[in-house]
Amino acid sequence: MAKTTQPAKPEELSKIDYTPPATDWLETPVEFKPGTYCHGSRIKYLEEVGFPNPREWAPSDEDWKLPANWKDIILEGMKERLGKYRSFQLFMDICVRCGACADKCHFYIGSGDPKNMPVLRAELMRSVYRKYFTTGGKLFGKQAGARELTEAVLKEWWYYFYQCTECRRCSVFCPYGIDQAEITMMGRELLNLVGGQTDWIGGPVANCYKKGNHLGLEPHAITSNIDYLLDDIEEISGIRPEPSFNRKGAEILFVAPSGDLFGDPGTYTAMGYLMLFHEIGLDYTWSTYASEGGNFGFFTSMEMAKRLNYKIYAEAKRLGVKWIIGGECGHMWRVLNQYMDTWNGPADFMVEPVSPITGTKFENAKGTKMVHITEFTADLIKNGKLKLDPSRNDHLNVTFHDSCNTARGMGIFEEPRYIIKNVCNNFHEMPEDTIREKTFCCGSGSGLNAGENMELRMRGGFPKASAVKSVQKKYGVNMLANICAIDRAVLPPLMQYWVPGVSVCGTHELLANALVMTGEKKRTQDLRLEDLPGIEEEGEGEEEENV
Amino acid sequence: MGIFFSFSMIIALVVIAFAGVQLANMQFIFGVVIPYAAIATFLIGVGFRVYKWGRSPVPFRIPTTCGQQKSLPWIKHSRFENPDSTFDVVVRMALEVFLFRTLFRNLKAETREGRVAYGSDKWLWLAGLALHVTFFVVLLRHLRFFMEPVPFFVNLTDSLDGFMQVGTPHLLITGVVLLLAAVYLFFRRISIPQVRYISLPADYFPLFLIMSIAISGILMRYFTKVDLVRIKALTMGLVTIGPVETDGIGAIFFVHIFLISILLAYFPFSKLMHMGGVFLSPTRNMANNSRIKRHINPWNYPVKVHTYEEYEEEFRDKMKSVGLPLEKE
Amino acid sequence: MNLNDLLLEKRSAILQKWFDLIIETYPEETAKFLKSQKNQFSNPVGHTILEGIEEIFNEVLGEPDPEKVAIYLDSIIRIRAIQEFSPSKALSFLFLLKKVIRAEVINETPEYHMLEELSVIESRIDDLVNISFDIYMQCREKIYELKANEVKNWTYRLLKKTNMVKEYKAEC
Q1: What ipTM does this complex have?
Q2: Which pTM does this prediction carry?
Q3: Are A431 and A470 in contact (CB under 8 A)?
Q4: Is C162 in CB contact (< 8 Å) with chain B?
Q5: Tag placement on chain A: N or C end, fewer CB within 10 Å?
């Protein structure tokens, strides 16, 4: 990108023949540009969980205060991981650089920075791999695409491995299934070995480890916050659900991303969960200990992810529940689907999930005993167990964003769509290349959703925003639904910047808007406490609720 | 980067073989010693590479899912994009290996500035498939030099391949397509800016090598007309590890066989190993059934965790104050 | 022939040159990508610029409708505002239009009245620059607002954490 640190001289303005770097990519060092990277982790966060090399540092510092033997640590770490992960070993070896992935990455599309092409982002590490682990690279060096591991290279890794959201879109298009997410994960693990952690990831990890959730909410804060949601539910519907916490003997443990308990619009989704479970009389409990479904540890190292994930099964066992329902969250479900049982299973102390309302067996979850809430709800609707009034969502023109992790690490496409189509009258898909397995990332996943990273996030989210904009133009879409807590946190600013007029919600917010609860009062407000258009009772304005 | 380097390597190789045979009379070296050494390198090298890959375990079940998961019975499961059984995985892999399914995914009509056009990746799919299929057929055809009697399917391939019945000997279409596909892939590599930017010498070299092998083969068959009987005697000698006679064979043959030897010897050290890799790729060859059946990580190890007891210990008072149940009062 | 007709005649050449010059404000490798793809979703940056400059050009030839032209200026500036350009470089693309038009006019050995018309068109472009300053600032302010909001959300959460939720809510 253009250098901007110096104000341009007048003659430069009219000239504008930007001279590209004369060097090829192997030799073009990285420049840390404000707005495109996250702060380095605070000491206390690393200390809390025992991550290496806690110190005061900033990524833009000349001196990263690396341990003296940092190079050995990295190379040793690479060697170990090459031996432990076939994916890593294979993906270092078999890329033919066909370029099929090149223009599939949202960061590349949004920035045009060639090092954001998945293939090149991977080559950043492959070049080092060749130098130290292959005969060709040792013998022929640069001609074989190999290069020394230097501090500049390490910084480049850091910069670009924190410009990848591990969304796996490139993997869909790679003829060998090479998954940049795997390489980014390995890269971040290695960087972690020498203290290359970001504050935005380090904080939630430390919080989650000690307090059970990313936000660091202590038990009393969780219950009081849910209380506050219950106030709102009561105001809207006249019904006050009575959820329980840490209750032994409940049939089901419910685990949500903690983001849903705080910060709008996640809270509305949480209200949706509460209202739904109340209405069907589900025998379930929340846990303040396993109060996080998400897993920022997944963005640091496999080991850390496992340490955080441990709480879910441990709590299910302690409470003696029969099975678990998981809330709407993206990377949470990647972890639950592809890693949890392997790390912390087997879950043989529970039983195969059966919906107590419909009797449906969730056979696809008979091993992990953990059901996605949209699977659970879709089944309820299909069996006619919910009374729904979709007209309450008539003021919304809804489109659905598939989250990367649930799309490409699980394949959950139809369940949320089925729910939305049953609770909304106006639903429109985005263009084909931007949804389902080809969905574009929000641009802020995998722990990149820090405020200081805003420019990068806006760039990375631009392809998705363009897709939303096209349906806004075409159909007047004003609501972007999703099943991911990170989406609910980061899509609002993305929309505010690129597509003003489009709000963001979880699927269960829409459901609860439409859910006709037994004994409820006449609804005049939606879950956002905004007046439902066309309902006259309070006689107030019928302004759209959009931002 | 590296086009010139790779190209000069190829020229040098051709010159070495030509000079070695014409000037130094090293027919035996180029016709026998080097091919044996190359085959040995190929077998051992590929074996070692695959062994090395196989040795790294697959700790997690990480298929890239490209379609609807198997969930509730009334939701249509996208079996081959998101397989949940071994059979489905086999189909997914077969589509991948034989039809280059993933590259085909890029194939899509799109509207560009008002008119319908096809994405350039259709050509990548087509050229890639053409290169691989014709390479395979050419290999099959060459079995006639290594088997006596020549099996029927080899003769059949030959006659199908020469269906156009032009020229003497009949023009075999696969050799030409192979060359064209390689040339296309080369031009694609240098003409698409992103692809050119990421290309290494190791990307040009195999393309040039394949082109030069095809060219030398075509020259031999249609233009310089080498003595096939003597060549067959030599190649049969090679496979039966019997006596080998190298007299009376044109230099072009030795260039051809030398380049093939280089390809074989280079294979295990290069990206050409993607052939084996595609079968082992965990994002493609695994079923998405980790919620049904537990996947075992052979190196799973216990980690330090924060237990509920520790948690309650720290927050007991606060938990009590809001009436949360406790293990220890 | 008046200038407007001349420019209309050369419309596609001017747009092409203008587009190329804008793309050249990006690093070489980026520029190649932005040029190579025309698909709305696989190259939204290039697409938006292309679409935007066409409309802006049309407006410049007529009497610009400030509201309409702002939409297209906005679509381009919004992208450049988050792309590591200094403010001056972010907006330089409008001056490039002057450059392109001037070059076209001079090639035609213009009559005097054309130069007069040129100055009219150039001052229209100047007006667009003025509008663009405002848009650019709005974009940057939006970014800072979004950043600030994230911090605010955190403090709000802190308030909740310390059980000050009820008071906070009552005040709202």
Answers
A1: 0.89
A2: 0.90
A3: yes
A4: no
A5: C
